[in-house]
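Bench notes, afternoon.
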Amino acid sequence: MVSVVLPVYNTEKYLRRCLDALVNQTIPKNEFEIIAVNDGSTDGSPAILKEYSEKYPDFFKVFNKENGGQATARNLGIQKASGDYIGFADSDDYVDTTMYEKLLRIAERDDADLVECHYHSMLELDSSDENGMPLYKEIQTRGTITARSDPRELFLDPQVSPWNKLYRRSVLVNGDVRFPEGMIYEDTSFYIKSIPFIKKQSYLDEKLVYYSVRQKSTMTSNLGKKVGDIFSVLNDILDFYRQHGLYEKYKAELEYFCVKIAFCSNLSRIGRVGDPAIKRDLLNKTFEFVNKEFPDYRKNRYFQGKIGLYIRSVNKMNCRIYAKALSKVMVG
């Protein structure tokens, strides 16, 4: 059975599109449930959720809570889920109606702990169609999504978002894998903390998710100091590995992942910060984190080719130039 956890907060504009794709999944309904968590929405989202729960009472469940952020909603969803496998959907995105049946069958066939599929990355434009829904332009996807023969490869250039994945429930529950609450970039921590408990990963080479890149969303807007949440997230990851006695086993992979985040996506977001003082502080924190946790990162065996040359070239003298350049070419 598959449980799909759907956090909802003030997305009434997109919600019916999302829900229609979920309730019309081809997977037999006795093998499927939707766990919708209303995270204190103040728009029309709660009424829409109630409508769907009344129309599909056998497999559509709604839980209401005070606003606490997407991580709290997803964690509650994991707690309420009863499926052997858990997936996650975002209420401003939508999925192919065959997605969860296809992912479940692969998971059953391969006895996989994690199954991933590919996705469409859709940049939301300012114009709308005749129904008032936004028009989109497809853009380049992020991360390398492919079959991984060794779970350690899951550290290398991943797409960390949970919405293109199906996890075996026991991996999350027994591994105590949860989303860190009260910060952005929580997907990063959740994904990396799950890896030691994944013995088998499978991949479906089909684009089954339509991921909306919204210009004013949490991840794409200029958030100033909130950009610095990434350091709390990376520290949350390292603390988890140390507390579970896993740090030494995965040190090289953690070093690669954390340093690459610090000098790539993190620098791109810093490059979009307008306040010079905040930008300077974030750049300082970037090098403080890297030098404290991974002082010998330039020797890491995973830094090869172009990415290796880039990582080894970043320093305090040129980081502003890199941040500005990356902010122009990296979205999200």
